[in-house]
Amino acid sequence: MKILTAAQTRAADSFTINQQGIASVDLMERAAKAFTCWFENKFRPDKAIFVFCGPGNNGGDGLAVARLLHARGYVVQVLIVGDTEKASADFRLNLKALPQEVKPVVVTEAVATPTVPADAVIVDALFGTGLNRPVTGLYAAIIANINESKACLVAIDIPSDLYTDSQTPAAGAVVKAAYTVSFELPKLAFLLPQHEELIGEWHVVPIGLDAGFIAATPTSYHLTCLNSAQQLLKPRSKFSHKGTFGHALLVCGSYGKMGAAVLAAQACLRSGVGLLTLRAPAAGYTVLQTAVPEAMTLADTNKKHLSSLPKELAPYTVIGVGPGIGQEKTTRAMVGQLLATASQPLVIDADAINLIAGSDKLKAMLPKGKVIFTPHPKEFERLAGKTANNYERLERLQEFCREFSCYLVLKGSHSAVGTPEGTIYFNSTGNAGMATGGTGDVLTGIITALVAQQYSLEAACRLGVYVHGLAGDLAKAEVGEIAMVASDLIRYLPQAFQKLLQV
Ligand SMILES: NC(=O)C1=CN([C@@H]2O[C@H](COP(=O)(O)OP(=O)(O)OC[C@H]3O[C@@H](n4cnc5c(N)ncnc54)[C@H](OP(=O)(O)O)[C@@H]3O)[C@@H](O)[C@H]2O)[C@@H](O)CC1
Ligand SMILES: Nc1ncnc2c1ncn2[C@@H]1O[C@H](COP(=O)(O)OP(=O)(O)O)[C@@H](O)[C@H]1O
Ligand SMILES: [K+]
């Protein structure tokens, strides 16, 4: 699914209006109907509804929603903030269309806003994608009042005063919605962690924007949803054999962190790899042979930390490195040896990232077009440098992937996969139960297995994060978020892959 900017969305609206030969107010009506349909499923008509409308088309949506909710038996109060004379044409049409029983109140002073009962619902239709500066004065005061109320807050399209595509200035007063119902496509702002308290739970409802126009609109930002993950997954052919699915080498573990190696290895095996060999310090030999009997283990001569690679690298389709390896000098030397000699794709995680981040020499050795990095935000900062905010971090992600011709999974709530072309694919699965030690090791195992099976590096990253998050979501249904541990994800990988195979 594409993520478009506010300007691109406006263009899609205009194109749709022309192409379908409808009036813009008809598209507004579709938006209002789609919103109302969602709303009716969420809130019963015994709730009092307060709709706050601004002067633009977002306010127009609010007026149309008020009319539709009134027709469905809700008690609706409309509050218009701003000068109705200067309001948009579709706003004015919808103002005229309000039934007599719904008497709108024009609010000219913040103190005049009614006290909204705690069990009521506020619909925020003050500003949408047309916001072009931080709100001040009356609007800021009204937003402060709305935020103070205990009522449930539902934003139309986007919470008012939140910028759609760029950092919202700190001076603004943004509506803190419990729910945001947006039209046709999600917005970039929804995917960033700093907006959690403002956007709440977000939903996207279709309004029939022209699919051809959206397909032809260029964007760097995409969201990987079930449908695209299913298209990425390759079914196994009947005559395949273990050689078809590649031989992965996972270079992992150190004394006291052998669990990371176990998790990565088990996840790799549960993600369809043909053969798996583990390279771990000697102390891990019995642990790994016992915990992961399906994998072969080649022990390092060093007891506690990795110091060398297996003699032959040629048999391996892909090499995953990092989970639990630590940052000893000998291990850094081994990472250098890997970068210098490996000709196959590399999946680089955890301390392998930290070792590379701390050494310009190692960075300069990175092979082009063959590396997937899987950092969490702190590791990303070490690798690519500090950034002032999450928008800047996304730009840095694009720059880094271009500079090093690499793929990078920036892990988080909506993990972002960066490609050498500068495209970013956000993930749509996963939950806060996954914020627990070892889940990243599981992801390394999954992505390594997918590369072994000849998925392109881009597909391995996108499908890998999707299925990892899906396993987390399935695990959540059984164990909840609080008690979830990384091995729960491995238990649910089979169901997650099965779900992707169901059409
Ligand atoms: N047909 C369509 O296109 C469809 C559009 N749809 C809906 O339209 C929404 C976009 O509507 P929009 O473009 O009219 O912008 P909107 O967010 O209502 O605000 C613009 C108004 O606010 C004003 N203003 C801005 N910033 C301000 C500030 N800080 N403080 C004070 N005023 C400020 C600005 O005034 P001005 O800059 O001229 O002073 C202007 O009057 C979109 O989110 C979706 O909900 C759907 O119905 C689907 C079909
Ligand atoms: N709130 C969250 N929602 C969705 N996924 C999450 C959340 N928190 C963490 N994750 C996922 O869990 C994994 C954590 O990885 P990482 O921080 O490397 O853990 P570790 O180093 O302990 O293995 C990542 O894939 C990340 O996307
Ligand atoms: K809004």
TrEMBL record:
Domain spans labelled YjeF N-terminal? 9-215
Q: Look up the record and name the cofactor or cofactors this protein needs.
A: K(+); Mg(2+)
- SUPFAM superfamilies, from UniProt? Ribokinase-like, YjeF N-terminal domain-like
**Binding positions (K(+)):** N58, D124, S160
Q: Name one Pfam family in it.
A: Carb_kinase
Top-rank taxon: Bacteria
Which Gene3D superfamilies does the entry mention?
3.40.1190.20, YjeF N-terminal domain (3.40.50.10260)
What parts of the sequence cross the membrane?
Answer: none
Q: Enumerate the catalysed reactions.
A: (6S)-NADPHX + ADP = AMP + phosphate + NADPH + H(+); (6S)-NADHX + ADP = AMP + phosphate + NADH + H(+); (6R)-NADPHX = (6S)-NADPHX; (6R)-NADHX = (6S)-NADHX
Q: E.C. number, please?
A: 4.2.1.136, 5.1.99.6
| Residues bound to AMP | K411, G412, S413, H414, S415, G440
| InterPro entries registered for this protein in UniProt | Carbohydrate_kinase_pred_CS, CARKD, Nnr, Ribokinase-like, YjeF_N_dom, YjeF_N_dom_sf
Q: Does the keyword Transmembrane helix apply?
A: no
The record's keywords, sorted A to Z, are:
ATP-binding, Isomerase, Lyase, Metal-binding, Multifunctional enzyme, NAD, NADP, Nucleotide-binding, Potassium
Task: Cite the cofactor comment.
Answer: Binds 1 potassium ion per subunit.
GO molecular function terms noted in the UniProt entry? ADP-dependent NAD(P)H-hydrate dehydratase activity; ATP binding; metal ion binding; NAD(P)HX epimerase activity
Indicate yes or no for the key word Ion transport.
Answer: no
Q: Where does (6S)-NADPHX bind?
A: 57-61, 128-134, 139, 157, 260, 324, 376, 441
Q: Name one GO biological process term.
A: metabolite repair
- Annotated PANTHER family: ATP-DEPENDENT (S)-NAD(P)H-HYDRATE DEHYDRATASE, ATP-DEPENDENT (S)-NAD(P)H-HYDRATE DEHYDRATASE FAMILY MEMBER
Assembly mode? Homotetramer.
Q: What does this protein do?
A: Bifunctional enzyme that catalyzes the epimerization of the S- and R-forms of NAD(P)HX and the dehydration of the S-form of NAD(P)HX at the expense of ADP, which is converted to AMP. This allows the repair of both epimers of NAD(P)HX, a damaged form of NAD(P)H that is a result of enzymatic or heat-dependent hydration.
Name the protein family.
Answer: Belongs to the NnrD/CARKD family. In the N-terminal section; belongs to the NnrE/AIBP family.
This protein is called what? Bifunctional NAD(P)H-hydrate repair enzyme
Its source organism is Pontibacter qinzhouensis
